[in-house]
Design brief:
There is one protein chain. The protein has 552 residues and is an alpha+beta fold. The protein has three domains: 173 residues, no CATH class; 216 residues, Orthogonal Bundle (hpI Integrase, Chain A); 135 residues, no CATH class. Helices cover 43% and strands 12% of the residues. The strands form five sheets. Strands 10-13-12-11 form a four-stranded mixed beta sheet, with no helix packed on it. Strands 5-6-7 form a three-stranded antiparallel beta sheet. Strands 1-2 form a two-stranded antiparallel ribbon. A hairpin with a 4-residue loop joins strand 11 and strand 12.
Length: 552
């Protein structure tokens, strides 16, 4: 960002020198507070429309508040003039509500403790480190602390580029004050097959109702449309809410396809989703409306709202209000606006409750755009035969991002992946298999050709990892050596296949052995066999070759 000369909010007395916290000299200003202390934000995807600086004036750090307000005002004006190309209004609002509220409170505490006015030249490396400690003691979660720090750092870096903080301001910030924090953040989990089916049936019914109407689409029905588009496309929340009325464009190569164009702010790039247009109108009554039909319906029916709000945003709508006339009677008035993030969240909850959408545990479904995006990407992964390149392309991100943040086993997988077989604690009498079971590389099976998960075509089952969720699986003490040999082989695979893939394919097997099989036997016996299998694994499980039979 180019340097800007901000109109100063203080008149400095260059003759008065005051010691600073860092030992440097500090200039005492004669403060002239701004007449307007509220910064208003234009309409954006969040509901916050202003930030009030007045509560921070005359609390011991006026120079910092004045300059910060000037910078925020400049950033807002620049965002408007560049149509968000510099910084989005939502980002600037986040600096205030998610960063400054903590930073200003910390400044107030410091000013009170040093019993004098706090200035920008008091801010240095030690000051920032103390702010990090303050956040750690604030009661915020680690991930929230990092978010607050990141917002404050981003804003102070902008302020530093205006020559307000010293030449080496970029050295004030520790390189990585929150190591490993990304592993502590719990992202959204995809919806189960049952839950997404329940939600889809609800949306289909609601869309059928909406399509039979002809009037302007209200905010509740727009939320239905947004959820339906999210299920079909997997677009992130902000690009989805900021879709333009002309977001559907012809496909350059396929006449039966269209492109849904969305803009990803963080990457400053456009994302294209190829969509198929439903040709058979009769089919619209038997399947959920396709994305193109939903967009075209909104464009046609909410044109007046877009004109009234002077915006090309797709999800614009009219809000009606009752206002008193001079004779105390009420009159109806209306204004146009568009769906914000908070409005979407509130109305999504209303949709779930109105439609009485319940999950397997008898609770209301938890639905948001993040969950729908992760569900979409995991479904693409499954339908594409686990094609990482195609999945990443459809998600609009890199393969690493897909692997680290999106792909995971669906919720029902862990619930179903428990030990369905039989654990026989007592030593079986006679030879192994004499009671009707057959020995396998892992343990024993009641019927390896026609059992629960066997191929049932006369061939022997070679899907050995499926044993742990097979009703024909039998474990005795004699089988523990082979089981723990497999156990250690899977543990070694973690460093080979990567933590994310290992978690999807092998983690539950290790968990079953630790939590469901081992506790059924003598702890002394388990300890001995576990060590022996580690040092001298069974020939079956000295390498991964046997598991590759499953892919043949």
């Amino acid at each position: 960002m180019n340097k800007k000369n901000f109109t100063s909010g203080i008149v400095k007395d260059l003759t008065l020198d005051v010691p600073s916290v860092s030992g440097q000299s500090s200039i005492s200003p004669i403060k002239i507070l701004p007449a307007v202390t509220v910064v208003k934000f234009p309409k954006h995807t969040h509901s916050s429309r202003k930030f009030d600086f007045s509560i921070y004036y005359r609390t011991g750090f006026d120079e910092i508040v004045i300059r910060t307000q000037e910078v925020i005002e400049h950033l807002v004006n620049e965002s408007v003039s560049t149509r968000g190309a510099s910084l989005s209004i939502a980002t600037i609002q986040g600096y205030c509500d998610g960063g400054l509220v903590y930073f200003f409170q910390f400044c107030k505490i410091v000013a009170s403790s040093i019993k004098r006015e706090l200035y920008f030249n008091d801010i240095g490396r030690e000051f920032i480190e103390h702010f990090i400690v303050y956040l750690s003691q604030s009661g915020l979660k680690s991930t929230s602390q990092k978010n607050a720090y990141s917002k404050v750092k981003a804003l102070l870096m902008i302020i530093g580029r205006q020559d307000l903080m010293g030449a080496d301001y970029f050295n004030y910030f520790p390189r990585n004050p929150y190591p490993g924090n990304h592993r502590k953040a719990k992202g959204e989990s995809p919806l189960s097959t049952q839950d997404i089916s329940t939600l889809t049936r609800c949306l289909k019914k609601e869309l059928d109702r909406i399509s039979k109407d002809t009037g302007e689409i209200n905010s509740y029905d727009l939320t239905i449309c947004i959820l339906a588009i999210a299920i079909r496309t997997g677009i992130n929340k902000t690009p989805l809410l900021e879709l333009q009325a002309d977001c559907i464009q012809p496909h350059p190569l396929k006449h039966d396809r269209r492109l849904l164009i969305s803009f990803k702010r963080r990457g400053k790039s456009f994302h294209f989703s190829a969509l198929r247009k439903t040709q058979d109108i009769a089919a619209l009554h038997t399947v959920m409306l396709d994305t193109i039909s939903i967009v075209e319906m909104i464009v046609a029916r909410n044109e007046r709202a877009r004109v009234k709000s002077n915006t090309n945003r797709l999800f614009a709508y009219t809000v009606s209000k009752l206002k008193p006339k001079t004779n105390s009677r009420l009159r109806s008035s209306s204004k146009a606006t568009f769906i914000s993030s908070s409005t979407l969240e509130r109305l999504t909850t209303e949709v779930i409750e109105r439609c009485n959408l319940i999950d397997a545990e008898g609770k209301y479904l938890v639905v948001n755009i993040g969950k729908l995006r992760k569900t979409f990407i995991n479904r693409i992964w499954s339908l594409s035969g686990q094609d990482a390149i195609l999945t990443a392309a459809m998600g609009g991100h890199s393969i690493k991002v897909s692997n680290d943040h999106y792909l995971e086993a669906p919720p029902e997988a862990e619930r179903n992946f428990n030990l369905l077989g039989e654990i026989r604690v007592k030593e079986l009498l006679g030879d192994e298999g004499s009671d009707g079971t057959e020995r396998t590389p892992i343990a024993q099976c009641e019927d390896p050709r026609y059992g629960h998960r066997a191929p049932k075509n006369g061939n022997y089952c070679t899907s050995f990892l499926s044993c742990f969720q097979c009703k024909s699986f039998v474990v005795t003490e004699n089988d523990l050596y082979r089981i723990f040999s497999l156990y250690w082989l899977l543990i070694k695979q973690r460093s080979i296949v990567g933590a994310k893939r290992w978690g999807r394919y092998y983690a539950n097997i290790v968990k079953i052995i630790d939590n469901e099989i081992a506790p059924k036997f003598s702890s002394k016996k388990i300890s001995e066999i576990r060590k022996y299998a580690h040092d001298s694994p069974h020939p079956y499980w000295r390498n991964i070759d046997l598991l590759e039979l499953e892919d043949s």
